[in-house]
Amino acid sequence: MKRTRVLHWGLGAMGAGAARMVLGKQGLELAGAVCRTPSKLGKDIGDILGVGKTGAQVSSSLAEALGRGPADIVIHATGSFTREVYGQLVEAVHAGLDVITIAEEMAYPWVGEPELARSLDELAKAKGVTVLGTGVNPGFVLDTLVITLTGACIRVDSIRAARVNDLSPFGPTVMRTQGVGTTLEEFQAGVAAGNIVGHVGFPESMTMIAKAIGWELDEIKQEKQPIVSKVYRETPHVKVQPGMVAGCNHTAWGYMDGRVVITLEHPQQIHPGLAGVETGDYIWITGEPNINVANKPEVPGGIGTIATSVNMIPLVRAAAPGLLTMADLPLPRATMGRS
């Protein structure tokens, strides 16, 4: 059986995790990696992952990586925003590669960057390749899973979904973007300045859901509120005294005909258990019938994103060319390990 040769663009926590998963899966072969970190360049990817030699090396550019050997698809993990990663995606498409990116806005880029989305879609079709944005959220929990559950409904009146998670395992960048360790005044200033972003992807998930079930949203509103701690909390990267911010409660509402029809919530904080908060993923669909689903604790963000991106490889390889969303493809499913 011919294996799909997977190139990894970005070897941070998500990119490295995806490469490690590829090594253990049937039908997949590690083709190489592209990375900007000087200490990783020229090394065998296996040495970076701590799994021994793989024969696949880390390159400084896509051209260099493809010069070392061919690839079929890129797992792209370098940024969150469409405009930020657009040039890299175009480069991969020009090279004739299918692309799976975990950039959050790319889950439904027509929302924030319609012109870039149109251009990338046209280019992908011209080159005969497929581009998909996915991850655990956006990409699965608060959109694909919601859409799937509506399949058991005769009628859908409204949708509410929430992802309550623990930020403690994450590094300093996430702490800053969620406002962890700030004062109330610093949090509000950070939100106003755009430095505290909360969750990236609500408009994308919301629009994907709406389009999939035939709704046309009139407006999307968002709100970011500080989660103020009443107890001391600490991670390797931040210390939070009582009265300081332990996380961000980000909520979005989708309106149709003046009525809220979709509500998405994502309260994120460090050590939520210290505040008596139980983590989990929750979906409530009001209609005929009502559907209520709870998964506790939540699907781990890192593992879920790694798994979703790798598991979608066979479906993307078999898909029609163009810029697609998770709603355009067959249901995601696990890829089996090597026998």
Biggest sheet: strand arrangement: 3-2-1-4-5-6-15
| Count of helix runs | 11
Radius of gyration: 20 Å
SSE string, helices as H and strands as E? EHEHEHEHEHEHEHHHEEEEEEEHHE
- Report the β-strand fraction as a percent range: 25-35%
Counted beta strands: 15
**How is the biggest beta sheet arranged?**
7 strands, parallel
Compute the average pLDDT. Answer: 96
Output the structural class: alpha/beta
Q: What is the CA-CA span between the terminal residues?
A: 13 Å
Question: Could you list the spans in which at least 5 consecutive residues all have pLDDT below 50?
Answer: none
Overall spatial form: globular
Helical proportion? 25-40%
What is the topological layout?
Layout: E1 4-9, H1 13-23, E2 28-34, H2 45-49, E3 58-59, H3 62-68, E4 73-76, H4 82-94, E5 98-101, H5 114-127, E6 130-133, H6 144-149, E7 155-166, H7 172-177, H8 184-193, H9 202-213, E8 219-228, E9 233-235, E10 238-240, E11 245-256, E12 259-269, E13 280-288, E14 291-295, H10 301-311, H11 313-317, E15 322-324
Parallel strand pairs: 1-2, 1-4, 2-3, 4-5, 5-6, 6-15, 7-12
Antiparallel strand pairs: 7-13, 8-11, 9-10, 11-12, 13-14
